[in-house]
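Subject: Protein entry, chain in single-letter code together with its fold tokens

Category: Structural biology, sequence-to-fold work with a learned token vocabulary.

Notation: Tokens come from a learned vocabulary of local backbone shapes, not from coordinates.

Start of record: The labelled sequence and token lines come straight after this line.
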Amino acid sequence: MRETRLTPLTPADIRRHLARNLVLGEFFARNARRYPEKPAVVTEEGAFTYRDLDERVNRLANALIDLGVSRGEKVAVFMPNSSRTIESYYAAHKCGAVVVPVNIRLSPKEVQYILDHSDARVLLYDKALEETVRAVRQERLRIEHWVVAGEPEPKGALEYEALVASGRPDEPLVPVDDNDVCYIAYTAGTTGRPKGAMITHKNAAMTAMISIASFRIGPEDRYFVAPPIFHVAGFGAVNICFQVGATVLLKRTFDPKEILKFMASEKATLAVLVPVMWNLILKDPDLSRFDLRSLRLGLSGGAVLQTEIKRKVREVFPSCAGIVDIFGQTEAAPTCALLPEEADRKPGSVGRPLPHIEVRVVGEDGREVRPGEVGEIQYRGPTTFLGYYKEPERTEEAFADGWFRSGDLVRTDEEGFVYVVDRRNDTIVSGGENVYPVEVERVLFEHPKIVEAAVVGIPHEKWGEAVHAFIVLKPGETLTAEELSEHCRKHLAGYKIPRSFDVVAELPRNAAGKVLRRELRRKYGSAIRY
């Protein structure tokens, strides 16, 4: 039971409290004291040392407190990757507020839902997103303060830099607890309204600590972060750097050639990208022009990374040990990782559970399955989220006997390596046989003419469902039914081979970049049959 204090906490009391707790603002402040002159963040606009960035974070935190933001209140951040995005997050962390990251690719209605559902009182946003914000402001929301980064500020909004300048540079000294929620990540689900996953300071701290120990990340590293910070992968990478005093390298947008140029000029030692980003970088025609001998390790998450990409990375980047394939999800990340030295021996695997993470694979009856059998992977450990904000029923449904039910179908081998089969709802049943789309898509991806592919089940008079593929070809390429069938027959059982396919310009995706299979089923009706 927590002791009840009858007298106000003194500054010394609060400093002792922060030192004992795993809170993100204190991690950053600690490294600002340890490495004051070291670059904390480098962007195309410039660099900030740990000392300078910490002062700006303190000023913004105190300014938010002056606006009336108190411990536990929600501060929404609607920005692309930038140093201001990082300042906004850590200022909220220091004043005890809860960050609500908002995906910049969302429509006004989607943004409105998140702001309304999260009970956000403050929105910090980038001027480039003014059109969306203008549409959102027409609705009745709880937002009391609109803060815009960029000039001129619209009527009724505060200007970001003026707000930072108005705050005091000293530490806010708010007694944040590591069981407090530090951010609410809204999952971009493919059905229904998004859910707000509550991540505590302890969750985020342990996620970083596990990654630091497992991947040997230290203060000498310069970590290029490609995923948006409003996603768990992007923020997680920033959090890792600020725990050990490493340097964050950020680009505002993703352009393969510009990314390569930036990584080379800044001598990146680590880089995290999602699979499609790695693929685009490796296919850039000017790749060989850039000196990337500083890169020692790549990381990937968000989807299973194809084995061919892992091999290509080792070939192209001479000093890189390879790519760590990280597996997890918003509610529990990371959970498993396949290390580079294991990639050739265990192709297709996402690795084994990371330290402190307990996993089990269960069948429909809730009992654990044997190695080689397909079941749902479930987790428990210090990185597992607190629950869904304001949704106790959905939170209860997400757990079984204390285990988080991921919804991912996997199998394991005798050594405990995990192989992702698919999401439960995407399974195709053809002639009584289960077909898992990821397995088919991996084979399609290996075809030299194919850039991306997704498969779904479509109605079939005889088999109930048949496999249908949607394929994005390399520019200038064509593909016949015979070519595709011949390729698939080498790798797949007959019932898994697509019976029809469409060539499309791109795959429909949600704001998190995940393929919308439901949209594929609805949108594309014509098919080339063979």
